[in-house]
Amino acid sequence: MAGDYYELLGVSRNADKEEIKRAYRRLARKYHPDVNKEAGAEERFKEINRAYEVLSDPEMKARYDRFGEAGVNSAAGAGFQDFSDLGGFADIFESFFSGFSTGMGQQARRRAGPVRGDDLRLELKLDFREAVFGGEKEIRISHLETCTNCRGSGAKPGTQPRVCSTCNGVGQVRRATRTPFGSFTQVSVCPTCNGSGQMIEDKCEVCGGSGQKQEAKKLKISIPAGVDNGTRLRVSGEGDAGQRGGPPGDLYVYLFVNEDAKFQRDGINILSEIKISYLQAILGDRIEVETVDGPVEVTINPGTQPNTVLTLEHRGVPRLGNPASRGDHLLTIQVDIPTRINAEERELLEKLAKIRGDRLNKGGFLGGLFRG
User: Fold this and answer.
1) What distance lies between CA 258 and its chain's CA centroid?
2) pTM for this one?
3) In this structure, is residue 354 part of a structural domain?
4) 68, 5 contact by CB (below 8 A)
5) Can you give the residue range of the structural domain that contains 327?
6) 233-268: pLDDT as tens digits
């Protein structure tokens, strides 16, 4: 990730959730790979998504504000909340200056116990109407599942892992070093058991001793009405399986909405344009227009001006979390002025100009339109 997350989204550090969301939407539309084919646009799009992922989550935002990217990167793991999760500053200093504390030893043993599985991320594209109305989607994922042959132990059925003789099941080794400033203890992952605290002599033939297998599966997920670019859905328990009896991680589905040829979206409002003739604009008319709900008849009032906006109430996007509340469809009227007219049309327009008292010079506007 290049640069500060706030700078990437172009917002201040005290920006609220709505400001962050608006900035993300604007940049996501600009750099979406389906829209922007310039070199570097896709990478920029990924950076914007990561920045929004962090700053839109209050918990992750708080960690980022306090510790920077180190507090939210993947190396920190899903369980990282604060330095208190690592035993606290007191335990850290105690481990440095008093050899190896009892508290730190207990923390190391906890790491050798059950481990929660990793969270997974999936990007899913939706059509415009799918995002508006929601529905059920089938997705295919590949994740780690607990091996059914060894039940996650990694050992051949009928055998059991034994305690690692190098670290005595702790999962870590330590080496004391004396310096002029006192004794320091260096703690590292046990090279023999790779931190598990166990040794497997007869490995499971199915999973090769890992206790897990990569499996592909299909899932059906519900898409709520009103989702937008960057909406994140959490599917509990569908991440990678945990180790040594630990719970599975979660699957996070990030949604991206394809552009529509007729409609644009502004929050919970839908925008579109319709062209009418200059005669319809002058005389008025009733015409049929397309909405996400299907065709709707609207009234064009006599004397309608170009760029007039008609509001079709409750024809917009359902409010996320409250589908009974919908935005509006804002319809911009474009008036089609002809570039060519025939002799009969010219004659009628000249009569109209005379009735209105408009003086027209020869070769003027009507002369330019005439191609008889």
Assistant:
1) 14
2) 0.61
3) yes
4) no
5) 264-369
6) 999 999 999 987 789 999 999 999 999 999 999 999
